[in-house]
Amino acid sequence: MPGIVADPHRVTAGWLTEVLQQGGHGAEVATFTWQNIGTGQVGQNVRFSLNYAPGKDAGPETLVGKFASGDPTSRATGSAQNNYLKEVRFYQQLRSTLDIRTPEVLFTDIDPSTDDFCLMMEDLAPAVQGDQLAGCSVDEAALALHEAAGLHAPRWADGGLEALEWLGRQTAETIAGGQALYDQVFPGFVDRYQERLSPEHMEVARALGAHFTAWASGYDGPRTVTHGDYRLDNMLFGGPYPVTVVDWQTPGIGAALSDVSYFLGAGLLPEARRASERDLVRAYHEDLRRRGVADYPFADCWEDYRRFSFSGLLMAVVASMIVGQTDRGDDMFMAMASRHAQQALDLDALEFLHG
After folding, report:
1. Phi, psi dihedral angles at 82 (to 5 degrees)
2. Burial of 297 (0-12, 13-18, 19+ CB in 10 A)
3. Cα(72)–Cα(323) distance, rounded to whole angstroms?
4. Would you say the pTM of this structure is higher than 0.85?
5. DSSP per-residue string spanning 15-84
6. What's the rounded Cα separation, in Å, for the pair 114 and 189?
7. What is the SS3 assignment for 253?
8. To the nearest whole number, what is the mean pLDDT of the chain?
């Protein structure tokens, strides 16, 4: 088995050969080049272009590797939140039990004592990464929600998930920690973004902080595997598959509709969301039913969708203040904050802030 190479600068042709052999390819890499791809905040993605030894079997022309962020702030965040461990364990222990399209992984491993890790997987080119700023079409949103049903349905209300200790989950302690973190970062969020976020939307963010504990404690419905960051930047459209979901650094046990509301709230521009969200959620609900989820009425599904319209706003406030700041990051977090605050207003969701 290949050892862990945690830095793309340290990758060798011999190591890439071992990775390919681990993945079932009998190829020998002679030379290679690499370049960074994507816009990850906590991880860095690299495309390796491979040249093979003459007379040997040929493998794939390219592979994609994922490594920890080179930014010290972002890496510290990834380590503190166990993002790197969760992604490796997701592929090692959970992926095979789900029905969602993800990249095929040739090799992944982590040293939990240092958080040195690597994830080597198929290259999905010419698939196109979703763009959180531009938003997507209603048809693309439907594809994403079909995959969401494939994530949520297989382990719906499955008590066996509790045995996976690395999976994130909600407890009284994590809720208290979430409240404390929101309270800590919100003043900085206001200072940095008050000129870019409307007063109405900033007030929604302020209300979420004031009632975070009641909102986070209020859900008592079924739980399943969740992605935790189910948005366009973490999806690739086209290429070998209609849509592929990547970036499994935040999986947890939680409410399925937290992923759905998080995706639609910022993935669709507000006008398109208002016009199509109920039909899209209903189609998602029917997909769950076809996959065996029986005891979950649409009325409950829609109420949960409304409740979790705050999920993206929560992410925008907290994540913007604990990862390295970039111009695109600022634009993305502002798009998320404004669209999700408007989503909550459109859905009359402020009632959920009171438990």
Report:
1. 60, 30
2. exposed
3. 9
4. yes
5. HHHHHHHHTT--B-EEEEEEEEES--SSEEEEEEEEEEPTTSBP--SEEEEEEE-SSHHHHHHHHHTTHH
6. 30
7. strand
8. 95
